[in-house]
Amino acid sequence: MVPSRVPSRGRRDQVEFRRHLKVGRNSNVSWKSSRILASRGSRAEFQRHLEVGSNSNVTWKSDGIPSFYFTLLCCKGDLAEAVVPFMGESITDGTLATFLKKPGDRVAVDEPIAQVETDKVTIDVVSPEAGVIEKFVAKEGDTVTPGTKIAFISKSDSSDTHVTPSEKLDQDTPKPGAKEADKAKHIVEEQIKEKPDVATEIKEKPRVTSPAAPKLSASEPQLPPKERERRVPMPRIRKRVATRLKDSQNTYAMLTTFNEVDMTNLMKLRSDYKDAFVDKHGTKLGLMSGFVKAAVSGLQQLPIVNAVIDGEDIIYRDYIDISIAVGTPKGLVVPVLRDADKLNFADVEKNINTLAKRANEGTISIDEMAGGTFTISNGGVYGSLLSTPIINPPQSAILGMHSIVSRPMVVNGNVLPRPMMYIALTYDHRLIDGREAVYFLRRIKDVVEDPRRLLLDL
Predict the structure, then answer these.
(1) Strands 374-378 and 322-324
(2) Where are the annotated segments for Disordered (predicted)?
C-alpha cells in the first residue's frame, strides 16, 4: 500500500490519495485545494483536504495509510499561510519574539500579526490576505527561518473551525481496544486493594546517619540564595553583538592611539550659525557632522584606513560609507551613511537623525545597516572620558569620541580653560602602521580645531 516515492504535485496527488479511499457511488467528495505540496501528515491531516458531503459513503481501504507529504499551497482554498519573510542576505534565522494578534482576530492584507527578532533588526510577519486568524502554528521563542509558517488566515467571514464529518466520526467513535483497556485497569485496581500494606511486611532497616555538613569558617564567603538571582535568555541582538565583538578580538591585531582636541572653534561655529542652520535646513547643527566631515577628509588622505584585508589580498574601497554607532534599548546598532564624502553638513545631520530615530523605534532595515567602511562611536553622550573601541568587522578602524571637559590648557603662553575632548583610533595593525594611524588622528584634530580647512581643502 505504501508508494515507493513521494507523490507528485497537482492532480496526480489526488489520484494517489484516492487509492486509499473506498468511495460510494453517490458520494459527494471533492478537494478543498487544487494542489498538494510537501509536508508530512496523518490521516486526520489528509481528511482536511477533502470536502465530504453529509450523505457520502467514504471509508478507508486499510487501517493504516502511508505518511504522505502534503500541505495546502499558500493562499489556496479558504486558508492562507502567513510565513516569515526574507530577512536579508546575511541573516539565516530569527526568533519568534511576540504575537501582535491572537486567534479569532480579524486582520487586513499586509497587517503585522507577529514579530521576528533577528541578529540586527525586528521584522514583521504580515497577513497575506484579509480575514480571520484561524490558528498559530508556531509559538513564541521558536527559531524560525524565511518561509516558516506562522499562522493560518481564514479568508471566510467566520473564524470557526470547520470539522468534516469523517473527522467528527473519528472523534466520537471509541477506539478499538478501549473496553479491554478499561477492564484490565479494573482488574489491576482490585488486585491492589486485596494486597496487604507493603509497609507492614518490610522490616524497618537501621538508618545510616549522614555526616554533619562541615561548618563554614568566618572567612569563607556566603553565597547569595538562588531566589535572589534571575536567569533570562540572551536576546538575539545581544548574542550577535557578543559573537561579532569576540570574532573581532580574535581576528584583528588591534591597537589604539589617542589624541586630544580643542573643541572651541567647532562649538563656536555651531553657536554662531545654529539658528540660521535650522531656518534653512530644518534640522539642528550638531558636533557629529563636524567629526564625520573630518573623518572623510582623513580617509581621503589615507585610503589605507578605508581598506580591509581579505585573505591574502588588500581591498581598497573607492567609496566612503561611515557607520555611526547608536545605542538602543535592545542593544547597539550601526546604521550607515552612504557616500559620506558626497554629503554636506545638513545632509549628514538629517541622515543621522533619521537613522537614529528609526534604530530606537526598531524600524530600521537590514540594508541601512549593511556595509560600512569606517565607524564613529560617541561614548561621550553617556559620559565616557576615555575608551578603546573595538573594530566593527569587516572594517579596519574605528574612531572613538568622548566627553567634552573644560581643562586648563596653555594657549599662546597663557593658561586658559578650554573645552577639550579625548579621541581614540583603534586600528588593525596588520594593515595600518602606527605612523598612518597617528597621521589620521592628527588630521581629525586639525579639521575639528579649525573647520575652515574644509572650505579651503587644506
Answers:
(1) parallel
(2) 155-229
> What is the structure's pLDDT at 212?
58
- The full DSSP string for 17-55 is HHTTEEE-TT--EEESSS-B-S-B--HHHHHTTEEE-TT
Q: What is the predicted pLDDT for the residue at 89?
A: 61
pLDDT at 217: 54
- The CA-atom distances, in angstroms, between 239 and each of 144, 299, 396 are 16, 31, 22
Grid look-up 473496553 returns: 179
Q: How far is CA 307 from CA 294, 299, 431, 445, in A?
A: 18, 9, 8, 21
Residue 199 Cα distances to 52, 53, 204, angstroms? 60, 62, 9
> Nine-digit cell at 153?
488566515
CA distance 419 to 416: 10
Compute φ and ψ for 199, nearest 5 degrees: -65, -30
Residues contacting 189, CB < 8 A, separation 6+? none
Domain boundaries, the chain: 11-73, 79-154, 237-456
Q: What is the DSSP secondary-structure string of 147-195? A: T-EEEEEE-SS--PPP--HHHHHHHHSPPTTHHHHHHHHHHHHHHHHHS
**Phi, then psi, of 381 in degrees rounded to 5:** -65, -20
Half-sphere exposure of 146 (CA within 13 A, CB side): 8
List of E strands, 347-448? 374-378, 397-401, 404-411, 414-428
The predicted-structure confidence for 96-116, as pLDDT tens digits, reads as follows 888 888 888 888 888 898 988
Q: What are 126's three cell numbers? A: 504580515
| Residue whose C-alpha is closest to residue 123's, from 100, 156, 153, 105 | 100
Stated as kind and residue range, the H or E segment containing 437 is: helix 434-449
Out of 433, 446, 450, 457, the active site residue is: 433
The bridge status of strand 112-117 relative to strand 94-99 is antiparallel
Q: Which fold has domain 237-456?
A: Chloramphenicol Acetyltransferase (3.30.559)
**pLDDT tens-digit profile of 284-300?**
999 999 999 999 999 99
Q: Are 130 and 156 in contact (CB under 8 A)?
A: no
Reply yes or no on whether 182 is catalytic: no
Q: Which fold has domain 79-154?
A: OB fold (Dihydrolipoamide Acetyltransferase, E2P) (2.40.50)
186 is catalytic: no
